[in-house]
Amino acid sequence: MIDTKKVSVVTETRPAQQKRTAMPTEATIAATSDAEAVASWLGEYRGSPQTLRAYRREAERLLLWLEHQGRDLAQLRRRDLDAYESFLAFPSPREQWIGPPRPRHSPDWRPFRGSLSPSSRRQSLIILQGMFAWLVEAGWVAHNPFRLMRDKRRRLDNRQVGIERYLERPLWEWLWEWLTQPLGSDTTRRERFLWQRRRMIFGFAYLMAPRISEMAAAQMSDFFKREGRWWWRVVGKGDKLARIPVPPDLVILLCHWRQALGLPAEPQALEEGPLLRGLDAKRQLGDNQLYRLIRATFHEAADALEAQAGDHAIAQAARLRAATPHWLRHTSLTHQAQAGVELRYLASTARHARLDTTARYLHNEDEEWHRQQSIHGLPGRAPEPV
After folding, report:
1. Quick one: which of 292, 291, 356, 370 has its CA closest to 329?
2. 177-197 mean pLDDT
3. Which long-range contacts (CB under 8 A, 24 or more apart) does 20-28 make?
4. pTM
5. Are strands 229-235 and 223-226 parallel, antiparallel or unpaired?
6. What distances in angstroms separate CA 57 from CA 10, 81, 138, 151, 354, one per listed residue?
7. CA 52 → CA 66, 237, 283, 296, distances in Å?
8. How far apart are the first and last CA of the chain?
9. Which residue, 267, 271, 318, 328, is the most exposed by fewest CB within 10 angstroms?
């Protein structure tokens, strides 16, 4: 059983924590334990709730791992980091570390939903390097062992040549057709509500490329009209405010969804209420609930695809089962790039700080490279026309 009380780094209220045995002599923060020191670091991100959640998750995982070994942050060395990365890839024993989403202080809460992918492990190491850099400056630890992993992270970077976690267009088109197949005349009011909500969720995700936290936080009043054009106002990563053009297809989906909620077709100025709601048509869907709903839909769709196409759909069904909500963002941006949306506008939609991040969604060069490579062949085979 994991003792989460010893390592709780929730910044609002912190229970009593185990004091570290060797206190730093030059610490410039008011902390008596690693958990309190990390909470001070997290306090720097109070203005960015999404970043705060992500950073707290990675910090807690490291503290729990260290606590399980009876060690503290000051004792972490470079030789330990390979073991920690291996642990992120395969948290074990599984029953102790992995479990379904639960409230943070529930007895059956677990820090992992499953094994972390290489990109997720890399992101965890980057976050923890930043945390250690801050703790070194604060005098809480003497050195930052994560800085010695630079070459390793660069090799991981070199493997990230493009975005792969997305649905190719034929699979997305099949999924959308399945999601929007007409309801029978005998469907209940509840079934019609769920059908409209699922269309709104997947349509919103595909057309606007939001992060799941942005979807869950979206309000009706975030949609507004200026000079005959609809826009979506969003506060995203880094607490940055942006406005994104709303395409006509989403306006139609939004009108249908609002009618299902018993609201006027178009959002009103200063209207209160969340965009995505529970069965009572009022309660806001939380991040975890929305995540589970999307994942369950992917699995249901995979079953339907296999039932429809049999052995011919095994690979595609497996792709759907592997998909997470973030795949919808990747799918949206990839398909926009393939449709010819200019890089500068694509970057604005994605709200990326750097264009090279957005450029990973451009697969056109891959297609051209593949086409030209087909010119080169074995003797006796006619080359493909260019």
Report:
1. 291
2. 93
3. 20/72, 20/74, 21/72, 22/74, 24/74, 24/139, 24/140, 24/141, 24/142, 25/139, 26/139, 27/138, 27/139, 27/140, 28/138, 28/139
4. 0.60
5. antiparallel
6. 10, 17, 21, 25, 25
7. 21, 10, 24, 27
8. 62
9. 318
Ordered strands of the 241-245 beta sheet: 223-226, 229-235, 241-245
Tokens encoding 206: 């595909």
Q: Contact 260/275 with Cβ under 8 angstroms?
A: no
- Contacts of 381-386 with C-beta under 8 Å, sequence gap 24+, read none
Q: Is the pLDDT of residue 104 over 70?
A: yes
Region of 30 (left: φ > 0; alpha: ψ -120 to 50; beta: rest) is: beta
64 by Cβ neighbours in 10 Å (0-12 / 13-18 / 19+) ranks as buried
Would you place residue 154 in the very low, low, confident or very high pLDDT band (cuts 50, 70, 90)? Answer: very low
Question: Measured over all CA atoms, what is the biggest interatomic distance in the chain, rounded to whole angstroms?
Answer: 77
Rounded to an integer, what distance in angstroms lies between the CA atom of residue 77 and that of residue 149?
Answer: 11
